[in-house]
Amino acid sequence: MSNHSPLGSVGATQTAIGEELADVTKKHKRTAALRQWWNDRSRLQQWLMLLVVVALAYLLPVINPPLITTEPANDFAISCFNMALYALVALGLNVVVGQAGLLDLGYIGFFAVGAYVAALWTSSDSTFVHIPYLATLPLAMIVTVVFGIALGLPTLRLRGDYLAIVTLGFGEIIRLLATIIPGLKGNTGFQNLGRPPGTNADGEALFTASNGLPWYWLVVTIIIIVAVLLGNLERSRVGRAWIAIREDEDAAEIMGVPTFNFKLAAFGTGAAIGGLAGALMGGQVGFVNNQKFDVPTSILFLAAVVLGGRGNKVGVILGGAIVAYIPLRFTELAAYKYLIFGIVLVLLMIFRPQGLFPAKAHLLTYGSRIRRWVKKEQAPAQPEGGPPPGSAPPAPGGSTAQSTRRARKET
Amino acid sequence: MSMLEVNNLEVRYGRIRAIEKLDLTVERGEIVTLIGANGAGKTTTMRAIAGLLAASRGSIRFEDRDITKLKAYKRVPLGISLVPEGRGIFGSMTVMENLDMGTYSRSGKKADSELDRVFELFPRLAERRTQAGGTMSGGEQQMLAIARALMARPDMLLLDEPSMGLAPQFIRQIFRIIKEINAQGTTVLLVEQNANQALAIANHALVLESGRITKTGTGRELLADPSIKEAYLGVA
């Protein structure tokens, strides 16, 4: 092919530069050793291992491992619930920050809206029509999507820092509204929120404020469902559009991506998950007032995403769990949690800016077309006389043959 | 009917007028070049034609259709593709994924023939199809940007300073490829500071100064024009 290339001669001189660049990318490769190992497993092995991990996640509060446990200071099952809740929040915020690259500092606002939806429609203190608690979960998502779009429509034309400032303001506005509007009861708040139905053998309610176990299982189940749905979304045209917007918004637009609509979609999706998490929090605690929705908590949510690794679902789930776990486990440090997370984030930005569990360096997971292309181009490329096999600098994902194998496996 | 007709175009950044009273026509099959100094409004013109900037006055017609108010993403399926200044590569995506993004506006349709075409034009990209776009050299990124725009199968390719920041031998190759793309039937509107080579391949050329067109002619005419020589070609 390179014979009748107008760029043939230039190509050769560029090889040296290319090799230099490949060395740089190798650094990222080292961290991806685990992923390489994972990709080398068969499909069945991967599923079995995932099954074990999920089973362990469900059993975590039952096993209550020594050293890891947060007892005696905090009930471990409730701690696990809180970790799962933060994981769910991080998963939702990751759509906005990690996928679409929109910096949202007021995510707590959606969380608050969700919690207040659950309170208004189930609390004994509310004069609203009462509905079953589980019905408030989808309702909370719908209401927060409305809030998300209401916030996004005028503000998503802004970029970068401007958007961050506006969202920061949004988070505060929601908290202040909860204080000012008499119907939202400010500091007094709402008590006796509804909870999911069900009783154990003794006829006692399954879901109570003091028993974290069923709540934890509920949230873990929701996380799995949400993660699977988001995974499908990421591999679709929507996910590709989000990544393109994150990388270069103008370039995405001139590829034919309606960037504004997709940013709004990311905002709405994130908002819905935030609202869902808020409603779950309200249900478990059984009490909602205006004290829990401050800006530092919003920053903590963002810290969970950054810590876990923007754009990586598994990473941000772990990031959320870690951010919730540290102050619960080390209660003597809880008062210093912002100091600690601040220092950790600074160190992280210096040594590992992509987060503890970075998103894949390159995707190759989406698009059967790309897999077909890679395969198709692979076949005739080998026997051709062009460049000898060794001369081409290695691609960052290892040899091209490896990449093809991986791509094929992901079908 | 001309393929692209820009009439009395004005674009503002707030209160500052970047271009005004700009008239421009491009006929099907041509290479038209817009040359000018820094800040003359070349990139503004291109971004306005692509739809990334709104016109505050005037009109843009493409294939006899008024696209002045049309959003940028809706202009792509009509056949307008921009290769932006600074290339706009999706850094974390591979070459393949970048090319695939190029077909975004033609969802579902097969793009294998386009892929074959761009790999023939840029064999370098075929070699590097699994490399992340952000790790490539400037010249390779420029090739990728042009290739990605071609994946949309545009009728008109807008090239905004494709030679910027490239080594001289690379610049010559890029210009050769632009001619090749044009010969294959794509109309080209080219913005360049590198006036010499841009004029050499252009059917028509326009000189932009402080937001206004000050001279038009064939590429050859402008190459020979003494005032152009002095101002843009570095010949005293």
TrEMBL record, chain A:
Region (Disordered): 376-411
InterPro entries on file: ABC_transp_permease, LivM-like
Any one Gene Ontology cellular component term annotated for this protein: plasma membrane
Pfam families registered for this protein in UniProt: BPD_transp_2
Keywords: Cell membrane, Membrane, Transmembrane, Transmembrane helix
Comp. bias (Pro residues): 385-396
Protein's membrane topology: Multi-pass membrane protein
Ranges that cross the membrane: 47-64, 76-97, 102-121, 133-153, 162-184, 215-233, 264-287, 299-326, 333-351
Keyword Transmembrane helix carried by entry: yes
Annotated compartments: Cell membrane
Record-level Gene Ontology MF annotations: branched-chain amino acid transmembrane transporter activity
Principal location listed in the UniProt entry: membrane
Keyword Transmembrane helix (UniProt): yes
PANTHER family: HIGH-AFFINITY BRANCHED-CHAIN AMINO ACID TRANSPORT PROTEIN BRAE, HIGH-AFFINITY BRANCHED-CHAIN AMINO ACID TRANSPORT SYSTEM PERMEASE
Protein name: Branched-chain amino acid ABC transporter permease
Organism in which the protein naturally occurs: Brevibacterium rongguiense
Lineage of the species this protein comes from: Bacteria, Bacillati, Actinomycetota, Actinomycetes, Micrococcales
UniProtKB/TrEMBL annotation, chain B:
Keyword entries, A-Z: Amino-acid transport, ATP-binding, Nucleotide-binding, Transport
GO BP: any one term: L-amino acid transport
A GO MF term: branched-chain amino acid transmembrane transporter activity
InterPro entries: AAA+_ATPase (IPR003593), ABC_branched_ATPase_LivF/BraG (IPR030660), ABC_transporter-like_ATP-bd (IPR003439), ABC_transporter-like_CS (IPR017871), BCAA_Transport_ATP-bd_LivF (IPR052156), P-loop_NTPase (IPR027417)
Record-linked SMART domains: AAA (SM00382)
PROSITE patterns found in the cross-reference section: ABC_TRANSPORTER_1, ABC_TRANSPORTER_2
Domain ABC transporter: 4-235
Signal sequence region: none
Family that this chain belongs to: Belongs to the ABC transporter superfamily.
Record-given protein name: ATP-binding cassette domain-containing protein
